Automatic annotation (TrEMBL):
The organism's place on the tree of life at top rank: Bacteria
Domain Thioesterase: 59-132
GO molecular function: acyl-CoA hydrolase activity
NCBIfam families named in the record: unchar_dom_1
Upper taxonomic lineage: Bacteria, Pseudomonadati, Pseudomonadota, Alphaproteobacteria, Sphingomonadales
Protein name per the record: Thioesterase
Origin species: Erythrobacter litoralis
First and last residue of the signal peptide: none
Entries under Pfam families matching the protein: 4HBT
Matching InterPro entries: HotDog_dom_sf (IPR029069), PAAI_dom (IPR003736), Thioestr_dom (IPR006683)
SUPFAM superfamilies per record: Thioesterase/thiol ester dehydrase-isomerase
Gene3D superfamilies, alphabetized: Hotdog Thioesterase (3.10.129.10)
This protein's UniProt keywords: Hydrolase
Amino acid sequence: MNDAGSHDRSSAETHHRALERLYASAPINAKFDSKLEILGEGRSRLVFTVGEDVYHAAGAAHGTIYFKMLDDAAFYAANTLATDRFLLTTSFNLHFTKPVRAGRVVAEGRWVSGRRRVFVAESRLVDQEGDEIGRGTGTFMRSRIALSSLPGYVEGSSE
């Protein structure tokens, strides 16, 4: 293996770990029992524990929770390909396929296309029985915000 390949892998790993720290540092994520794992370029996994505190009146998780899980998984999958800028969600379509009650939910994100200004990524939610409970596709755009300017992204400033 050449030095450039090793450096590329090392800088990708550094970026992936920094994205995980960024997720953990976001104030909104203190409200959720969740953890982000970047699996590689264009791939993310979030594990959420859904509780009754996010139920609607009919006793299942409110749709805002589906959006949060799906958007985060797709967003972080896309942001693995943007190593300099924070991405912004510009649109997101989601489909509910099954109500979810309390338990573990895995959100899997996958980059689909785009590498310059606009990125497209998709995500799916799987409940603890292994059933798909939701699916989404998002469009994300590069912002003017440098990742290196965000305290959560910079090493040594996590949680």
